[in-house]
């Protein structure tokens, strides 16, 4: 497996806080779980880091696990603190800006890819 999950008796488990790393250059994107029905991604932001405006053709759910991010959808801005969650339909432009060091959980549709998320760092 190329992600940090453990599989036992057809059950996948992972910790979003184990082996947590931040980078001064970019946000750090880590695949945590890849199941038959979806994917769970960890995104680690240092304060001030941004994932520029982007979209996916599939629905997503984003949850702040630690810290605080500004989640922009068009002209609207949502402040997501630890424990806050937001869900978007596919094809909705959005942007993430870390207001402080933050850890975010991104839940992807099975047909989406971690490679697409990583490609956002090149925008």
Task: Write up this protein.
The protein has 123 residues and is mainly beta. It has one helix and eleven strands. A five-stranded antiparallel sheet has the order 3-4-11-6-9. It has a four-stranded antiparallel sheet with strand order 5-10-7-8, with no helix packed on it. Strand 3 (28-34) and strand 4 form a beta hairpin. It is globular and about 45 Å long. The termini are far apart.
Unreliable stretches: none
> How many β strands by DSSP?
11
Order of helices and strands: EEEEEEEEEEEH
Based on the structure, what is the oligomeric state of the protein chains? single chain
How much helix, percentage-wise, in residues?
A: under 10%
Number of helices: 1
Strand content: over 45%
What is the strand arrangement across the widest sheet? 3-4-11-6-9
The gyration radius over C-alpha positions equals 14 Å
Please give the largest β-sheet. Answer: 5 strands, antiparallel
Q: Look at the helices and sheets and give the structural class.
A: mainly beta
Overall domain count: 1
CATH topology: Jelly Rolls
């Amino acid at each position: 497996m190329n992600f940090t999950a453990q599989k036992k008796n057809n059950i996948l488990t992972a910790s979003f806080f184990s082996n947590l790393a931040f980078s001064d250059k970019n946000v750090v994107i880590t695949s945590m779980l890849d199941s038959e029905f979806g994917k769970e991604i960890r995104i680690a932001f240092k304060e001030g880091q941004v994932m520029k405006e982007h979209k996916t053709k599939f629905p997503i759910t984003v949850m702040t696990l630690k810290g605080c991010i500004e989640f922009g959808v068009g002209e609207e801005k949502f402040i997501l603190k630890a424990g806050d969650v937001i869900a978007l339909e596919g094809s909705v432009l959005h942007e993430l800006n870390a207001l402080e060091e933050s850890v975010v959980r991104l839940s992807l549709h099975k047909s989406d890819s971690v490679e697409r998320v990583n490609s956002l760092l090149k925008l």
